[in-house]
Specification:
Layout (H helix, E strand, L loop, with lengths): L2 E6 L3 H12 L4 E7 L2 H11 L3 E4 L8 H11 L4 E5 L7 H10 L3 E4 L10 H14 L11
Parallel strand pairs: 1-2, 1-3, 3-4, 4-5
Helix pairs in contact: 2-3
């Protein structure tokens, strides 16, 4: 059975790239796409994805708040896929991991121009690993 993935990202370009990358694997299916955390939360309850990929910087509800809400109400493995988690963004990485994200992956600076095979492979591997993880609820503090 395919791994069900929900993409939460405000950039149409990025969402299309991720969807193409993930759909290249027969074991992964993108079941939903949301433009922000608020839309994402509604889809989580409807779609019950195996893994969620979210951006950090989004309108209405950012990725950090979205991660907190998901982990409080619908614990699901989350991969934060964002420009806000480069190796230098220690505070952002710490906050999203504390909120319950299982992994982070920086958007490659070239990704917006075209997808690289290595990023595609890394993303698919991360999704497959995250799909095997059981996560526990983290109550909102």
């Amino acid at each position: 059975m395919a791994i069900k993935v929900l993409l939460v990202e405000d950039s149409d370009v990025a969402i299309n790239i991720y969807e193409k990358m993930l759909n290249s694997s027969s074991r992964i299916e993108v079941v939903g796409k949301a433009k922000n955390g608020k839309e994402g939360l509604e889809l989580v309850s409807q779609l019950n994805p195996d893994v969620i990929c979210t951006d950090l910087q989004m309108p209405q509800m950012d990725g950090l708040e979205f991660t907190k809400q998901v982990m409080a109400h619908y614990p699901t493995p989350i991969l934060v896929l964002s420009n806000g988690v480069q190796q230098t963004d220690v505070d952002n990485i710490y906050e999203v991991m504390k909120a319950g994200a299982v992994d982070v992956m920086a958007k490659p600076q070239t990704a917006m121009g075209g997808s690289s095979e290595s990023m595609q492979n890394e993303l698919i591997v991360k999704i497959r690993v995250l799909a095997t993880k059981k996560v526990s609820a983290i109550p909102l503090s």
